[in-house]
Amino acid sequence: MPKTLQKVHKHIAKKRGAVEALHEFSRDARRLRRATARDDRVARVSANMSRGRQTYVDRIAYFYETLPEDATPMSEDEMKDIVVRYINRSVPEIEQLQSERRKGRPPSKREEALLQRTDVENKEFKTGFWMPDLSQEAVIKSLRAWNGDWSGLSTMNFIRITKDGGKQPSVFPPKGMS
């Protein structure tokens, strides 16, 4: 049985000639409603998934942009330095928002969001910050060839690096503390 609205609509149009002439409670009208509901549900789930993945795509995009052209495998200290720069990327904007705010006024929504994001990323860095393993030449090459897409990340190796200096392998996509 066809599942998408386009297929159902086409099938009913061939059979009847005019989809608008359907009775409200007919089998074909129910098929159209089910197909429409399914398409809406699939679109909603897809949008939620892409919204959830976007933070990780933005993170990898930052590493992609900051990686020098002649990049060589990095040490743990260099990777920790890049992570600290990533976490503190919004500090100038936070300081500007704080200076523009009048004394005694609550912080703006943007300022709260930036502070919360920085806090969450600092906590993640203490327990294990998920990032590509820039200590491997193959990962650096695949990051250079990355097209900015979620599916393009599956070819890279990832690690979790901690503030204290621990480094452990991780998986793609990130799940919990893997």
UniProtKB/TrEMBL annotation:
Biased composition regions of type Basic and acidic residues, renumbered to the chain: 108-117
Entries under Gene3D superfamilies matching the protein: Translation machinery-associated protein 16-like
Domain of life of the source: Eukaryota
Assigned GO CC terms: nucleus
Annotated spans, Disordered: 96-117
Similarity comment text for this entry: Belongs to the TMA16 family.
Classification via PANTHER family: TRANSLATION MACHINERY-ASSOCIATED PROTEIN 16
Protein name as it appears in the record: Translation machinery-associated protein
Taxon lineage: Eukaryota, Fungi, Dikarya, Ascomycota, Pezizomycotina
